[in-house]
Specification:
The protein is an alpha+beta fold. The protein contains 15 helices and 14 strands.
Length: 435
């Protein structure tokens, strides 16, 4: 079989050459399309279900949220394992699927089952799917350098301006904010005054909710003109909340400011983010979507940050906390230099041992062609270019040229034997003629 292939290749050498050129061009195109990352993605094929119910203990979260979700998600097809963690006010359910399952098909099936499990949860509790990223999806961290802004203003700037802009970058699954305070209106109620005015705490909550709302009216026509009537009731400052009416006491209106005080504060938080021991900062974590090119996504995020920085308040800038592209570029440059060094060393050794540049050239050509073809297979199996895969290619260069060296040496040996036999036959014929 091998002999037949060799004979066909020798008889159709131009066709073989065209096939090699075609595979090399295809391989170059595959190199450009192959995702690049510093480390291989060895995380499990999982879908995260996150549920928040603030103020509840871990045991309550386990009994009323985590257990119903785990019980209903066990029937999802192609699930390998389900893990869950209950924390203070939060529940995490990790649905581990088989490795050959498409991640978006898995998310769809989990979402279908969550629609059924929703009715088993307490009122107002809604589970949500985590981002479609992997365990190594945290590719870029940044923080705001804003010495003239307090932490609450920085967090508002991050949540309502920077985050939304970065989420439009292709390949970004989520931008998770960290640090600072999430600003909120806080109503500190005096229980003695509630009892005095005969107002319950639920009445205060319902009245405040009802008075923070815009409503629409009908159309009003006058003088051939149509006017749309709207009721504008959104809260804009503390005074709007303080003036909300709660009831009356002996014919005198009772407002929020009569039963307590309204203040601006920060939401409950479980940690802070410190930058190199210089104090707390506010920033975000960019999570890459599953199967994307990390290097390209980071470059797109950096370009977007430059555009966003133009619209920031005066004196506010971005600073990088973690950038994986430096590791990616360093790994790629190291592997490239090693591959070039190995090609040069192999070429020199082949030329020294064979002492024939055409034979050495035929062997050296195998290296770039084989490396290019390997990227076609990497794309076919969904593997990225990382330290592990590129190192394997670099180590395999010696194996790549072995075949060419063996074939060249065997060809030299066969030609030498043929020339020796041919020379002996010629000498014998000449001797017979002389006799």
């Amino acid at each position: 079989m091998v002999q037949k292939i060799i004979e066909i290749s020798l008889k159709n050498r131009y066709i073989v050459l065209l096939l090699a050129i075609g595979l090399f061009v295809w391989g170059i195109s595959a190199i450009k399309k192959n995702p690049i990352d510093a480390i291989p993605d060895l995380s499990e094929n999982q879908v995260i279900v996150f549920t928040e119910w603030m103020g509840r203990s871990p045991q309550v979260m386990e009994d009323q949220v985590t257990y119903p979700l785990v019980s209903n998600l066990q029937g999802v097809p192609k699930v390998k394992n389900i893990r869950a963690v209950s924390m203070f006010g939060m529940s995490f359910v990790y649905v581990i699927f088989e490795d050959d399952v498409d991640v978006y098909w898995a998310r769809t099936r989990v979402l279908e089952r969550l629609n059924y499990a929703q009715r088993l949860l307490p009122q107002g509790v809604t589970p949500a799917l985590g981002p479609d990223g992997t365990g190594v999806g945290h590719i870029f961290w940044y923080h705001l350098d804003a010495p003239k802004m307090d932490l609450g203003e920085q967090r508002a700037l991050q949540d309502w301006y920077v985050k939304f802009a970065l989420q439009t970058v292709p390949g970004v699954a989520e931008v998770a904010s960290y640090g600072g305070f999430e600003k909120q209106y806080q109503l500190v109620v005096d229980p003695v005054k509630l009892q005095y005015y005969n107002i319950s705490l639920m009445d205060v909550m319902n009245k405040v909710k009802a008075n923070n709302n815009d409503v629409g009216g009908r159309k009003f026509e006058m003088s051939d003109m149509a006017y749309i009537i709207r009721g504008l009731g959104y809260v804009k400052n503390k005074e709007d909340i303080e003036n909300i009416a709660l009831g009356n006491y002996n014919g005198i209106p009772v407002s929020v400011k009569d039963i307590g005080q309204v203040q601006m504060g920060g939401d409950l938080r479980l940690g802070i983010f410190d930058a190199n021991g210089n104090g707390e900062v506010v920033g975000g974590i960019v999570v890459m979507r599953y199967g994307e090119n990390a290097d390209q996504v980071i470059k797109a995020v950096k370009e977007k940050l430059k555009d966003v920085e133009k619209g920031l308040p005066e004196g506010v800038k971005f600073k990088t906390s973690y950038d994986r592209s430096t590791l990616i570029e360093a790994a790629i440059d190291t592997i490239k230099s090693k591959i070039i060094e190995e090609i040069i060393v192999v070429a020199v050794i082949v030329i020294l041992f064979l002492f024939h540049w055409r034979s050495a050239l035929s062997i050296i050509i195998q290296i770039p062609v084989t490396i290019a073809i390997s990227f076609i297979l990497l794309n076919a199996f969904g593997l990225s270019s990382n330290i592990m895969s590129l190192t394997g290619i670099a180590l395999a260069i010696g194996v790549i040229v072995d075949n060419g060296i063996i074939m060249s040496e065997n060809a030299y040996r066969s030609l030498s034997l043929w020339q020796k036999n041919n020379h002996s036959t010629t000498k014998q014929d000449s001797h017979e003629k002389m006799v």
